[in-house]
Design goal:
This is 2-C-methyl-D-erythritol 4-phosphate cytidylyltransferase. The protein contains seven helices and eleven strands. It is an alpha/beta fold. Strands 5-4-1-6-10-7-11 form a seven-stranded mixed beta sheet, sandwiched between helices. Strands 2-3 form a two-stranded antiparallel ribbon. Bound molecules: cytidine-5'-triphosphate and magnesium ion.
Length: 234
């Protein structure tokens, strides 16, 4: 089953504190955004990539796409103030019908198998999200005091990609804009329409590179994968 993907990359990476867009930082000497793009560029069921960027960084992105021979980026779309605004700008220009994925530029470790499973599920159910069961005990806190301990057995951490029928994602974003609703992911815009969103169990190493220490985790995840590949070839 084929799909197109929106990759928001228009953030500034404040929490990474690197003095530039964190997506230009390197892991194993390759920029993070290139790792992410390569996953989709090499997946034959991906029909196109819509990349939202900060217009001030257009030349940097263009040069990287050329240098690393990324083929499937159809458009570089100016993003907005919040992540949701950036995704919406891409949603507005999508030409295709069928399934669309939204995947953070800052999550380079997503696997093709998970993408396949997610796309199948979204085709069947209209909306699906990759998530993992929460490992920590999560507490709701008010003024640095525990207000409540949540039932861990029902808590999952949502990741990306998140997949939708394109018409549904469009409607969800239009409604969010109309109601001035700002969510931290795309399924929350669909949930508020009362539409069920299916879960695909993902992997804990599909991390979003957010703070400095995530760069160490990222190097470790790559080394682990390289070792696995070598073992598979023995
Ligand atoms: N993003 C975007 N447009 C924005 C904000 C974020 O396209 N206005 C993108 C980021 O580039 C990233 C993804 O959305 O690939 C997830 O956001 P996040 O991890 O929060 O990245 P940043 O917003 O760049 O980081 P921070 O919140 O620390 O500033
Ligand atoms: Mg952010």
């Amino acid at each position: 089953m084929s799909y197109v993907v929106i990759i928001p990359a228009a953030g500034s990476g404040k929490r990474m504190n690197a003095g530039k867009n964190k997506l230009f930082l390197s892991v194993q000497e390759v920029p993070i955004i290139i790792h992410t793009l390569r996953v989709f560029d090499s997946d034959e069921t991906c029909k196109g990539i819509y990349l939202t960027i900060n217009p001030a960084e257009r030349d940097i992105f263009q040069e990287l796409l050329t240098e690393y021979k990324i083929q499937k980026v159809k458009r570089l779309i100016p993003g907005g103030k919040e992540r949701q605004d950036s995704v919406y700008e891409a949603v507005k220009v999508i030409e295709e019908e069928g399934i669309v994925l939204v995947h953070d530029g800052a999550r380079p470790f997503i696997r093709t198998n998970t993408i396949r499973e997610l796309v199948e599920k979204a085709a069947e159910k209209k909306a699906a999200v990759v998530a993992v069961p929460v490992k920590d005990t999560v507490k709701r806190v008010e003024n640095f005091q525990v207000a409540e301990t949540l039932d861990r057995s029902s808590l999952w951490a949502a990741q990306t990609p998140q997949a939708f029928h394109i018409s549904l994602l469009k409607r969800a974003h239009e409604m969010a804009e109309r109601d001035q609703f700002l969510g931290t992911d795309d399924t929350s815009l669909v949930e508020r329409l009362g539409i069920p969103v299916a879960i695909i169990e993902g992997e804990y190493d599909n991390i979003k590179l957010t703070t400095q220490e995530d760069l160490y985790f990222a190097e470790a995840i790559y080394l682990k994968r390289e070792r696995r590949k070598e073992e598979d070839h023995v």
